[in-house]
Amino acid sequence: MSDFLVVGGGVIGMLTTLQLADAGHSVTLVERGQCGREASWAGGGIVSPLYPWRYTTPISRLSAWSEGRYPELALRLLEETGVDPEYRQKGLLYLRVEDAEAALAWAREVGKPLASVGADFLYTREPQAAPGCDGALWMPTLGSLRNPRLARALVKRLQAMPGVTLREGCEVETLLVEGERVVGVQTPLGRLQADRVVVCGGAWAARILVTAGVELPVRPVKGQMIQFQAPPGLVKRVVLMDGRYVIPRADGRVLAGSTLEETGFDKSLSTTARESLWDSATRIVPALAECPVVHHWAGLRPGSPCGVPFIGAVPGVTNLHVNAGHYRNGLVLAPAATRLLVDELLGREPIVDPRPYRPGHRGAGRAGA
Fold first, then answer.
1. Could you give the 3-state DSSP secondary structure of residue 316?
2. Helix, strand, coil percentages for the chain (3-state, nearest 5)
3. Are 250 and 86 in contact (CB under 8 A)?
């Protein structure tokens, strides 16, 4: 029996497992499919909320802590696994921002580098950007990484850790509850028991928790994206305009996203979404119109009220914890969100005030409790 059983093998579940194993604990990680192949794979890899000044303080605090940890994490994983997550800190250009003054005021308040730049600056750094812009907002510290490679590196690292057991293709059918205490999970392969259970199931978290009588307001929100094959260097950094973005990779691929669709657990693709994404991307970088679209996919984000994740012990059920509901910012918030929960699990001083994320303070808990 493990010290901890983590349900869900996305970036949240894998980083939770990594930190617990680093601290010397035995951990079993259970994933219904393949680790890192749901929302963690489907996103774009921008290490910041898209418009960070529009978010609430709880999200901003986690984001600020997380952002500075990704360079270190990427280097660690490269050294330990040989898989490069391709962390790149090339900055971000915001085009046509309606609330630029609010953005600059936010940046001054939190000490974040953000500047209003002219057209010469914009087109010197991104010559193929949408023509006719008088200028842009420029955030030089923003980074991005290749999230499928991050997931691959995390899987490889966890597989090599003696205290970690990975069980992929193993769906949790129900949480096992004895009285007011969770003792493990039931799977098609049998019972798995642990001293404590942590649910990091992303969009599926509510489905898992309800088997223990716990209600969690987390729902799936579909996002579709497309990928162009472009000449390397056509797009050099993340460019954001009108709520849509393009993200370059080192090999020339350019991601464009994304949609927001309330369709339940449906991940089907639509021609309408593909055309809308193509239109947005080619307005941001017109030269992409000459590049083929080589991939189109969808993922399910774990939507939650105001996008603030639920992190902490589930009230009314002993030994049950949750880390879910990160909405569009799972990758962005992952280092801080997982560290905050691991601090609680191990009795350490929390990195930020945990109260805004506690399930019991935000309408989540055991039904009838």
1. coil
2. 35, 30, 35
3. yes
Tokens found for residue 44: 């774009």
Structure tokens at 229: 């094959």
Structure tokens at 41: 């794979």
* CA dist., res. 6 & res. 165, Å (int): 10
Q: pLDDT tens, 70-111?
A: 999 999 999 999 999 999 999 999 999 999 999 999 999 999
What does residue 332 show for φ and ψ, rounded to 5 degrees? -60, -45
The pairs formed by 185-188 with CB atoms below 8 angstroms and a separation of 24 or more are: 185/5, 185/7, 185/30, 187/30
Q: Chain-wide mean pLDDT for the chain?
A: 95
- Decide: 227 and 37 in contact? Cβ < 8 Å: no
Class of residue 210 by CB neighbours under 10 A (exposed 0-12, middle 13-18, buried 19+) = middle
Cα gap 326→323, rounded to integer Å: 8
pLDDT, tens only, 245-262: 999 999 999 999 999 999
Number of alpha carbons in the 13 Å side-chain half-sphere of residue 7 = 32
pTM of the model: 0.95
C-alpha to C-alpha distances, 336 to 109, 313, 318, nearest whole angstrom: 21, 17, 24
Paired with 98 in beta bridges are none
